[in-house]
Each structure stands twice: as structure tokens, then as C-alpha cells.
Amino acid sequence: MKASLVPALVALTCLSPVPSAAGPAETITVQLNETATIGEACRLTFVIRNDLPDAVVALGLDLVMFDKSEGVSGYAAVDFGELPPGKTRVRQYDVAKGGCAGISRILLNDVRACEIERGAGRDCLPLLDISSRSEIDLIL
Length: 140
Hints:
The protein is mainly beta. It has one domain (21-139): Sandwich (Immunoglobulin-like). It contains 1 helix and 8 strands, in the order αββββββββ. It has one helix at 5-15, and strands at 28-38, 41-50, 56-67, 72-79, 88-97, 103-116, 128-132, 137-139. The strands form 2 sheets. Strands 5-2-1-7 form a 4-stranded mixed beta sheet, with no helix packed on it. The chain has a 4-stranded mixed beta sheet with strand order 4-3-6-8, with no helix packed on it.
């Protein structure tokens, strides 16, 4: 092979996509999508997606709300229910008295319920991919 072709072949090799051996990520995505004060309550809207190969039979989370001074201002248990594989669901919950303006962040404190079809004994916390697109942060 000519020496002048080697740099060109190296450059092409670097640009070629390499197929991933790991395949698609196996996660349960939990996004705090929107917050709204409804009456005297803070309503949270979640978008949840199951990217596992199996159904999630039950998923429940314990949430802790923090106020602007970083004090704990409330607790809530939310139940997302059943999540078929490849399915996205939207769920809403009224979680705090006094509206959303006083909440700075929400801690996902614990996974209170998680049952995966054919996933006996599987820890769900590492499977969660959490995010927020609202003004309130969702954190682990």
C-alpha cells in the first residue's frame, strides 16, 4: 500500500460509525415535565418511559419537596402503575399545599415499589434516568 493512502484510510476509519455492542440503554426514564399551581396545590406532570425489554408491573416513588431555603416542605408517594416495554405514559399528581412557587427542588428519596416482569430481585434505582424540564429540579 502506498504511504500516501495510509493517512486517508486512517481518517476514514475514524469517521466510520462503530456499532454499539451494548445495544440500546435499558432504562426507565422519569422526567418532571411541568409544574403548575392548581388552587392551593402544586401539580407535577411526569413523563415516564419504559425502555426495558420487559414490562414494569409496578413503579412507585417517594418524593421529598424542598423549599427555597432548602428546608423539607413536604412528602409525596406517587404510583406510576404498569409500564409496558417501549411505552411512554404521562401522570399528574398534586403534591404540595401552597403551590409550586415555594418549591426549589424535589428529591427522589426512594423507590417504594418496583416490580419488573421476569426481573425478580432486580434493583430499580440504577435503572432510573431522571430529569426535569421545569423550573423545579428533580434530583437523586
